[in-house]
Write a structure and sequence with these properties.
445 residues; eight-stranded mixed β-sheet; 12 helices; 20 strands; binds zinc ion
Length: 445
Amino acid sequence: MADTDLYWNPILETLPQDKLRELQTKKFRKILAWAYDRSPFYHELYKNAGLEPGDIKTYDDIRKVPKMEKSFLRDAQNCEPFPYGKILSVPLEDVTVYHQTSGTTGQPVFQPDTWQDWDWCAETWAYILYAQGYRKTDRVFIPFGYHTAIAYWMGHYGAEKLGCEVVPGGVLNTEARILKIQELKATALMATPTYILGMADTARTKLGIDPAKDLNIQRITVAGEPGGSIPTTKKRMEEAWGCKVYDHVGATEFGAWSYECTFQAGLHVNEGLFLVEIEDIDTGELLTEPGRRGKMIISTFDRYAQPCIRFDSKDIIEWSPDVCECERTFRLIKGGVVGRVDDITKVKGVLLAPTSIEEVVRSIPQLGDEYEVIVAKKGDLDDISLRLELVPGQEGNEESVRKTLVDQLRIKTGLGYNLEFHEYGSLPRYDLKAKRFKDLRKDAH
Ligand SMILES: [Zn+2]
Protein backbone atom coordinates (compact mmCIF):
# COMPACT_ATOMS: atom_id res chain seq x y z
CA MET A 1 0.00 0.00 0.00
CA ALA A 2 1.38 3.36 -0.98
CA ASP A 3 1.89 6.07 1.58
CA THR A 4 -1.32 8.09 1.28
CA ASP A 5 0.37 11.21 2.62
CA LEU A 6 2.02 11.53 -0.79
CA TYR A 7 -1.23 12.46 -2.51
CA TRP A 8 -3.58 15.43 -2.53
CA ASN A 9 -6.36 13.07 -3.57
CA PRO A 10 -5.36 9.52 -2.48
CA ILE A 11 -8.35 7.86 -4.15
CA LEU A 12 -8.13 9.52 -7.55
CA GLU A 13 -4.35 9.48 -7.84
CA THR A 14 -4.18 5.71 -7.24
CA LEU A 15 -7.32 4.66 -9.10
CA PRO A 16 -6.64 1.59 -11.28
CA GLN A 17 -6.19 2.47 -14.97
CA ASP A 18 -9.43 0.80 -16.12
CA LYS A 19 -11.41 2.73 -13.52
CA LEU A 20 -9.64 5.92 -14.59
CA ARG A 21 -10.70 5.38 -18.23
CA GLU A 22 -14.27 4.79 -17.06
CA LEU A 23 -14.22 7.98 -15.03
CA GLN A 24 -12.69 9.93 -17.93
CA THR A 25 -15.39 8.70 -20.31
CA LYS A 26 -18.12 9.71 -17.87
CA LYS A 27 -16.64 13.16 -17.31
CA PHE A 28 -15.98 13.68 -21.02
CA ARG A 29 -19.61 12.92 -21.87
CA LYS A 30 -20.75 15.41 -19.25
CA ILE A 31 -18.66 18.34 -20.53
CA LEU A 32 -19.50 17.46 -24.14
CA ALA A 33 -23.23 17.69 -23.45
CA TRP A 34 -22.71 20.91 -21.48
CA ALA A 35 -20.86 22.57 -24.36
CA TYR A 36 -23.26 21.30 -27.02
CA ASP A 37 -26.26 22.68 -25.14
CA ARG A 38 -24.80 26.04 -24.16
CA SER A 39 -22.07 27.16 -26.54
CA PRO A 40 -23.14 28.18 -30.07
CA PHE A 41 -19.56 27.50 -31.19
CA TYR A 42 -19.49 23.87 -30.03
CA HIS A 43 -23.07 23.29 -31.13
CA GLU A 44 -22.20 24.35 -34.67
CA LEU A 45 -18.90 22.40 -34.69
CA TYR A 46 -20.59 19.15 -33.70
CA LYS A 47 -23.75 19.69 -35.73
CA ASN A 48 -21.63 20.20 -38.87
CA ALA A 49 -19.83 16.94 -38.12
CA GLY A 50 -23.16 15.13 -37.69
CA LEU A 51 -22.41 14.38 -34.05
CA GLU A 52 -24.81 14.35 -31.10
CA PRO A 53 -23.40 14.06 -27.56
CA GLY A 54 -25.38 10.82 -27.11
CA ASP A 55 -23.27 9.19 -29.86
CA ILE A 56 -20.31 9.09 -27.50
CA LYS A 57 -20.76 6.06 -25.27
CA THR A 58 -17.32 4.51 -24.79
CA TYR A 59 -13.75 5.66 -24.28
CA ASP A 60 -12.90 4.78 -27.89
CA ASP A 61 -15.87 6.82 -29.17
CA ILE A 62 -14.15 9.99 -27.90
CA ARG A 63 -11.92 9.88 -31.00
CA LYS A 64 -15.00 10.63 -33.14
CA VAL A 65 -15.40 14.08 -31.60
CA PRO A 66 -13.97 16.86 -33.84
CA LYS A 67 -10.83 18.57 -32.60
CA MET A 68 -10.50 22.29 -32.15
CA GLU A 69 -7.51 24.62 -31.90
CA LYS A 70 -6.43 28.12 -30.97
CA SER A 71 -7.45 29.72 -34.27
CA PHE A 72 -11.03 28.44 -33.72
CA LEU A 73 -11.05 30.17 -30.34
CA ARG A 74 -9.90 33.43 -31.92
CA ASP A 75 -12.63 33.30 -34.56
CA ALA A 76 -15.32 32.37 -32.04
CA GLN A 77 -14.26 35.24 -29.78
CA ASN A 78 -14.65 37.69 -32.64
CA CYS A 79 -18.45 37.54 -32.12
CA GLU A 80 -20.94 38.64 -29.46
CA PRO A 81 -21.09 38.62 -26.47
CA PHE A 82 -17.95 40.73 -26.13
CA PRO A 83 -15.21 39.73 -25.39
CA TYR A 84 -15.62 35.93 -25.25
CA GLY A 85 -17.97 35.44 -28.20
CA LYS A 86 -19.94 32.35 -29.05
CA ILE A 87 -17.76 29.86 -27.23
CA LEU A 88 -18.94 31.17 -23.85
CA SER A 89 -21.07 28.52 -22.13
CA VAL A 90 -22.33 30.44 -19.09
CA PRO A 91 -24.16 33.77 -18.76
CA LEU A 92 -21.59 36.58 -19.15
CA GLU A 93 -22.40 37.90 -15.67
CA ASP A 94 -21.26 34.61 -14.12
CA VAL A 95 -17.68 35.23 -15.27
CA THR A 96 -15.60 36.41 -12.32
CA VAL A 97 -12.11 36.65 -13.75
CA TYR A 98 -10.44 37.54 -17.04
CA HIS A 99 -7.04 36.33 -18.27
CA GLN A 100 -5.46 36.13 -21.69
CA THR A 101 -2.74 34.23 -23.54
CA SER A 102 0.56 35.99 -24.17
CA GLY A 103 -0.17 36.55 -27.84
CA THR A 104 3.31 35.52 -28.97
CA THR A 105 1.76 33.51 -31.82
CA GLY A 106 -0.87 36.09 -32.82
CA GLN A 107 -3.91 37.83 -31.37
CA PRO A 108 -4.27 36.87 -27.65
CA VAL A 109 -7.05 34.45 -26.71
CA PHE A 110 -9.28 35.54 -23.82
CA GLN A 111 -9.94 33.21 -20.91
CA PRO A 112 -13.13 33.61 -18.87
CA ASP A 113 -13.57 31.70 -15.62
CA THR A 114 -16.46 31.57 -13.20
CA TRP A 115 -15.81 31.40 -9.46
CA GLN A 116 -16.41 27.64 -9.65
CA ASP A 117 -13.94 27.34 -12.56
CA TRP A 118 -11.38 29.33 -10.65
CA ASP A 119 -11.73 27.09 -7.62
CA TRP A 120 -11.11 24.16 -9.98
CA CYS A 121 -7.96 25.91 -11.30
CA ALA A 122 -6.70 26.18 -7.72
CA GLU A 123 -7.54 22.50 -7.24
CA THR A 124 -5.39 21.49 -10.26
CA TRP A 125 -2.46 23.32 -8.66
CA ALA A 126 -3.11 21.78 -5.25
CA TYR A 127 -2.37 18.36 -6.84
CA ILE A 128 0.89 19.72 -8.24
CA LEU A 129 2.12 21.39 -5.09
CA TYR A 130 1.15 18.58 -2.74
CA ALA A 131 2.97 16.07 -4.98
CA GLN A 132 6.05 18.30 -4.82
CA GLY A 133 6.12 18.29 -1.03
CA TYR A 134 4.38 21.60 -0.29
CA ARG A 135 2.53 21.51 3.02
CA LYS A 136 0.73 23.94 5.32
CA THR A 137 4.02 24.84 6.96
CA ASP A 138 5.45 26.32 3.75
CA ARG A 139 5.83 30.03 3.15
CA VAL A 140 5.66 30.41 -0.62
CA PHE A 141 7.13 33.43 -2.36
CA ILE A 142 5.71 34.21 -5.80
CA PRO A 143 7.96 36.62 -7.72
CA PHE A 144 5.48 37.40 -10.45
CA GLY A 145 4.10 40.67 -11.78
CA TYR A 146 0.36 40.03 -11.34
CA HIS A 147 -1.33 40.98 -14.60
CA THR A 148 -3.54 39.57 -17.37
CA ALA A 149 -1.32 36.53 -17.97
CA ILE A 150 -2.62 33.54 -16.01
CA ALA A 151 0.94 32.40 -15.19
CA TYR A 152 1.28 32.07 -11.40
CA TRP A 153 -2.20 33.28 -10.47
CA MET A 154 -3.27 29.63 -10.33
CA GLY A 155 -0.17 28.67 -8.35
CA HIS A 156 -0.97 31.41 -5.85
CA TYR A 157 -4.52 30.19 -5.27
CA GLY A 158 -3.45 26.53 -5.34
CA ALA A 159 -0.91 27.17 -2.58
CA GLU A 160 -3.53 28.98 -0.49
CA LYS A 161 -6.01 26.15 -1.02
CA LEU A 162 -3.43 23.70 0.26
CA GLY A 163 -2.93 25.82 3.35
CA CYS A 164 0.46 27.36 2.61
CA GLU A 165 1.21 30.97 3.48
CA VAL A 166 1.64 32.92 0.23
CA VAL A 167 3.77 36.04 -0.21
CA PRO A 168 2.82 37.96 -3.36
CA GLY A 169 6.12 39.34 -4.66
CA GLY A 170 4.47 41.42 -7.37
CA VAL A 171 5.82 44.89 -8.05
CA LEU A 172 9.19 44.41 -6.38
CA ASN A 173 12.35 44.31 -8.52
CA THR A 174 14.62 41.27 -8.47
CA GLU A 175 16.92 42.54 -5.72
CA ALA A 176 14.02 43.54 -3.47
CA ARG A 177 12.42 40.14 -4.04
CA ILE A 178 15.57 38.31 -2.96
CA LEU A 179 15.87 40.44 0.16
CA LYS A 180 12.21 39.73 0.98
CA ILE A 181 12.78 35.98 0.56
CA GLN A 182 15.71 36.29 2.95
CA GLU A 183 13.86 38.46 5.48
CA LEU A 184 10.78 36.20 5.61
CA LYS A 185 12.74 32.92 5.42
CA ALA A 186 10.48 31.82 2.55
CA THR A 187 10.62 28.06 1.98
CA ALA A 188 9.33 27.73 -1.58
CA LEU A 189 9.34 29.59 -4.86
CA MET A 190 7.56 29.44 -8.24
CA ALA A 191 8.87 31.01 -11.44
CA THR A 192 10.09 30.28 -14.97
CA PRO A 193 13.47 28.49 -15.27
CA THR A 194 14.86 31.65 -16.85
CA TYR A 195 13.92 33.74 -13.84
CA ILE A 196 15.02 31.13 -11.28
CA LEU A 197 18.51 31.26 -12.81
CA GLY A 198 18.36 35.04 -13.21
CA MET A 199 17.43 35.58 -9.56
CA ALA A 200 20.32 33.40 -8.39
CA ASP A 201 22.70 35.37 -10.58
CA THR A 202 21.44 38.72 -9.25
CA ALA A 203 21.68 37.43 -5.66
CA ARG A 204 25.31 36.44 -6.14
CA THR A 205 26.58 39.32 -8.27
CA LYS A 206 24.60 42.29 -6.89
CA LEU A 207 23.86 41.33 -3.28
CA GLY A 208 26.65 38.92 -2.37
CA ILE A 209 24.02 36.37 -1.35
CA ASP A 210 24.50 32.69 -2.21
CA PRO A 211 20.92 31.33 -2.51
CA ALA A 212 22.08 27.76 -1.77
CA LYS A 213 23.68 28.79 1.54
CA ASP A 214 22.14 32.05 2.66
CA LEU A 215 18.44 31.49 1.88
CA ASN A 216 15.94 28.94 3.18
CA ILE A 217 14.28 27.83 -0.09
CA GLN A 218 13.55 24.08 0.10
CA ARG A 219 11.58 23.50 -3.08
CA ILE A 220 10.98 25.30 -6.36
CA THR A 221 8.24 24.78 -8.93
CA VAL A 222 8.97 25.92 -12.46
CA ALA A 223 6.63 26.40 -15.40
CA GLY A 224 6.26 28.36 -18.60
CA GLU A 225 9.40 27.05 -20.33
CA PRO A 226 10.84 23.58 -20.99
CA GLY A 227 13.89 24.06 -18.69
CA GLY A 228 12.43 22.06 -15.77
CA SER A 229 12.61 18.93 -17.92
CA ILE A 230 15.99 19.66 -19.53
CA PRO A 231 18.46 17.81 -17.23
CA THR A 232 21.33 20.30 -17.65
CA THR A 233 19.12 23.33 -16.92
CA LYS A 234 17.49 21.58 -13.97
CA LYS A 235 20.92 20.75 -12.52
CA ARG A 236 21.99 24.40 -12.78
CA MET A 237 18.85 25.54 -10.96
CA GLU A 238 19.16 22.89 -8.23
CA GLU A 239 22.80 23.73 -7.63
CA ALA A 240 22.18 27.47 -7.58
CA TRP A 241 19.43 27.21 -4.98
CA GLY A 242 20.57 24.08 -3.09
CA CYS A 243 17.15 22.41 -3.36
CA LYS A 244 15.00 20.26 -5.62
CA VAL A 245 13.37 21.88 -8.63
CA TYR A 246 10.13 20.37 -9.95
CA ASP A 247 8.56 20.84 -13.34
CA HIS A 248 4.95 21.47 -14.26
CA VAL A 249 3.31 22.13 -17.62
CA GLY A 250 0.08 23.97 -18.20
CA ALA A 251 -1.54 26.56 -20.44
CA THR A 252 -4.10 29.34 -20.18
CA GLU A 253 -6.76 27.63 -22.29
CA PHE A 254 -6.69 24.25 -20.59
CA GLY A 255 -4.96 24.69 -17.26
CA ALA A 256 -2.39 22.81 -15.20
CA TRP A 257 -2.53 19.27 -16.58
CA SER A 258 0.76 17.72 -15.49
CA TYR A 259 3.26 17.66 -12.67
CA GLU A 260 6.46 16.12 -11.49
CA CYS A 261 6.35 14.54 -8.04
CA THR A 262 9.17 14.37 -5.49
CA PHE A 263 10.50 11.17 -7.11
CA GLN A 264 11.24 13.12 -10.33
CA ALA A 265 10.61 10.27 -12.79
CA GLY A 266 8.82 12.44 -15.38
CA LEU A 267 5.60 14.43 -15.47
CA HIS A 268 2.39 12.75 -14.29
CA VAL A 269 -0.68 13.64 -16.35
CA ASN A 270 -3.55 14.52 -14.03
CA GLU A 271 -5.90 11.96 -15.54
CA GLY A 272 -8.59 12.61 -12.97
CA LEU A 273 -9.19 16.13 -14.27
CA PHE A 274 -7.95 15.94 -17.89
CA LEU A 275 -7.94 13.62 -20.87
CA VAL A 276 -4.63 13.62 -22.74
CA GLU A 277 -4.37 11.88 -26.11
CA ILE A 278 -1.16 11.73 -28.15
CA GLU A 279 -1.47 11.66 -31.93
CA ASP A 280 1.09 11.04 -34.63
CA ILE A 281 1.73 14.45 -36.23
CA ASP A 282 1.49 13.22 -39.81
CA THR A 283 -1.00 10.35 -39.73
CA GLY A 284 -3.19 11.27 -36.74
CA GLU A 285 -2.74 7.73 -35.39
CA LEU A 286 -3.37 7.47 -31.62
CA LEU A 287 -0.15 6.73 -29.75
CA THR A 288 -0.69 4.77 -26.54
CA GLU A 289 2.73 3.20 -26.05
CA PRO A 290 6.02 4.86 -25.05
CA GLY A 291 8.73 5.51 -27.62
CA ARG A 292 7.05 7.74 -30.20
CA ARG A 293 6.53 11.46 -30.07
CA GLY A 294 3.29 13.04 -31.13
CA LYS A 295 1.13 16.08 -30.50
CA MET A 296 -1.13 16.41 -27.51
CA ILE A 297 -4.91 16.61 -27.85
CA ILE A 298 -6.30 17.66 -24.49
CA SER A 299 -9.74 17.89 -22.90
CA THR A 300 -10.55 19.60 -19.63
CA PHE A 301 -13.41 18.02 -17.70
CA ASP A 302 -14.53 20.49 -15.07
CA ARG A 303 -14.03 24.02 -16.37
CA TYR A 304 -17.36 25.28 -17.63
CA ALA A 305 -17.28 28.92 -18.83
CA GLN A 306 -15.10 28.17 -21.85
CA PRO A 307 -14.93 24.40 -22.26
CA CYS A 308 -11.80 22.95 -23.80
CA ILE A 309 -12.71 19.75 -25.63
CA ARG A 310 -10.23 17.84 -27.79
CA PHE A 311 -8.01 20.88 -28.11
CA ASP A 312 -5.08 20.40 -30.50
CA SER A 313 -2.42 21.97 -28.32
CA LYS A 314 0.46 21.50 -30.86
CA ASP A 315 2.64 20.50 -27.89
CA ILE A 316 4.93 17.59 -28.65
CA ILE A 317 5.06 14.93 -25.93
CA GLU A 318 5.55 11.19 -25.52
CA TRP A 319 4.49 8.56 -22.97
CA SER A 320 7.27 7.45 -20.67
CA PRO A 321 8.29 3.80 -20.28
CA ASP A 322 9.29 4.52 -16.66
CA VAL A 323 7.33 3.68 -13.54
CA CYS A 324 7.32 6.23 -10.74
CA GLU A 325 8.05 5.13 -7.19
CA CYS A 326 5.17 7.25 -5.90
CA GLU A 327 2.72 4.60 -7.17
CA ARG A 328 0.39 7.13 -8.75
CA THR A 329 -1.61 5.51 -11.54
CA PHE A 330 -1.58 8.79 -13.52
CA ARG A 331 0.61 8.04 -16.54
CA LEU A 332 3.99 9.73 -17.01
CA ILE A 333 5.24 11.68 -19.99
CA LYS A 334 8.94 11.71 -20.73
CA GLY A 335 10.97 14.92 -20.85
CA GLY A 336 7.98 17.27 -20.46
CA VAL A 337 6.82 19.19 -23.53
CA VAL A 338 9.76 18.69 -25.87
CA GLY A 339 8.63 21.34 -28.34
CA ARG A 340 5.73 22.69 -30.30
CA VAL A 341 4.68 21.69 -33.77
CA ASP A 342 5.09 25.39 -34.67
CA ASP A 343 8.58 25.99 -33.34
CA ILE A 344 10.26 22.84 -34.54
CA THR A 345 11.41 24.75 -37.58
CA LYS A 346 13.44 23.65 -40.52
CA VAL A 347 16.87 25.25 -40.68
CA LYS A 348 19.15 24.31 -43.58
CA GLY A 349 16.68 21.51 -44.24
CA VAL A 350 17.15 20.02 -40.75
CA LEU A 351 14.41 19.93 -38.09
CA LEU A 352 15.61 22.00 -35.16
CA ALA A 353 14.10 21.91 -31.65
CA PRO A 354 15.35 24.92 -29.63
CA THR A 355 15.43 22.74 -26.49
CA SER A 356 18.40 20.79 -27.95
CA ILE A 357 20.44 24.00 -28.08
CA GLU A 358 19.54 24.81 -24.48
CA GLU A 359 20.60 21.33 -23.37
CA VAL A 360 24.08 21.87 -24.86
CA VAL A 361 24.60 25.45 -23.63
CA ARG A 362 23.58 24.61 -20.07
CA SER A 363 25.90 21.57 -19.99
CA ILE A 364 29.03 23.75 -20.29
CA PRO A 365 29.94 25.25 -16.89
CA GLN A 366 32.09 28.06 -18.39
CA LEU A 367 28.98 29.52 -20.04
CA GLY A 368 26.48 31.81 -18.35
CA ASP A 369 22.76 30.99 -18.24
CA GLU A 370 21.73 33.40 -20.99
CA TYR A 371 21.90 32.74 -24.71
CA GLU A 372 20.14 33.78 -27.94
CA VAL A 373 19.62 32.00 -31.23
CA ILE A 374 19.11 34.08 -34.38
CA VAL A 375 18.12 32.40 -37.63
CA ALA A 376 18.43 34.64 -40.72
CA LYS A 377 18.83 34.41 -44.47
CA LYS A 378 22.23 35.09 -45.99
CA GLY A 379 21.60 35.16 -49.72
CA ASP A 380 19.63 31.99 -50.33
CA LEU A 381 21.04 30.17 -47.34
CA ASP A 382 19.92 29.90 -43.73
CA ASP A 383 22.38 31.26 -41.25
CA ILE A 384 22.25 30.55 -37.49
CA SER A 385 23.99 32.65 -34.90
CA LEU A 386 24.28 31.60 -31.28
CA ARG A 387 25.04 34.42 -28.84
CA LEU A 388 26.58 33.41 -25.53
CA GLU A 389 28.21 34.79 -22.41
CA LEU A 390 31.27 33.36 -20.65
CA VAL A 391 30.99 33.56 -16.87
CA PRO A 392 33.39 36.07 -15.25
CA GLY A 393 36.92 34.71 -15.00
CA GLN A 394 36.52 32.37 -18.01
CA GLU A 395 37.42 34.93 -20.72
CA GLY A 396 40.70 33.15 -21.51
CA ASN A 397 38.90 29.85 -22.21
CA GLU A 398 36.94 31.02 -25.23
CA GLU A 399 38.70 28.73 -27.68
CA SER A 400 38.22 25.51 -25.70
CA VAL A 401 34.56 26.38 -25.03
CA ARG A 402 34.11 27.13 -28.72
CA LYS A 403 35.48 23.71 -29.65
CA THR A 404 33.20 21.87 -27.17
CA LEU A 405 30.20 23.83 -28.44
CA VAL A 406 30.88 23.08 -32.09
CA ASP A 407 31.17 19.34 -31.36
CA GLN A 408 28.17 19.09 -29.04
CA LEU A 409 25.87 21.21 -31.21
CA ARG A 410 26.80 19.12 -34.23
CA ILE A 411 25.94 15.91 -32.33
CA LYS A 412 22.69 17.17 -30.76
CA THR A 413 21.28 19.29 -33.58
CA GLY A 414 23.19 18.31 -36.73
CA LEU A 415 23.93 21.96 -37.54
CA GLY A 416 26.79 24.45 -37.57
CA TYR A 417 26.47 27.88 -35.88
CA ASN A 418 28.20 31.26 -35.88
CA LEU A 419 29.25 31.48 -32.25
CA GLU A 420 29.34 34.98 -30.80
CA PHE A 421 30.68 35.60 -27.31
CA HIS A 422 29.27 38.68 -25.58
CA GLU A 423 30.33 40.41 -22.42
CA TYR A 424 28.83 38.84 -19.26
CA GLY A 425 25.57 40.63 -18.42
CA SER A 426 25.03 42.11 -21.89
CA LEU A 427 22.42 39.67 -23.30
CA PRO A 428 18.78 40.41 -22.39
CA ARG A 429 17.41 39.22 -19.04
CA TYR A 430 13.76 38.15 -18.62
CA ASP A 431 11.30 38.02 -15.70
CA LEU A 432 8.87 35.60 -17.30
CA LYS A 433 9.32 33.61 -20.49
CA ALA A 434 12.56 34.25 -22.34
CA LYS A 435 12.54 35.00 -26.07
CA ARG A 436 15.75 33.26 -27.01
CA PHE A 437 14.86 31.95 -30.43
CA LYS A 438 14.47 34.56 -33.16
CA ASP A 439 13.64 33.52 -36.69
CA LEU A 440 14.22 36.57 -38.89
CA ARG A 441 13.59 34.67 -42.13
CA LYS A 442 9.85 35.33 -41.93
CA ASP A 443 10.45 39.11 -42.14
CA ALA A 444 13.00 38.92 -44.98
CA HIS A 445 12.05 39.87 -48.52
ZN1 LIG B 1 5.44 10.09 -9.15
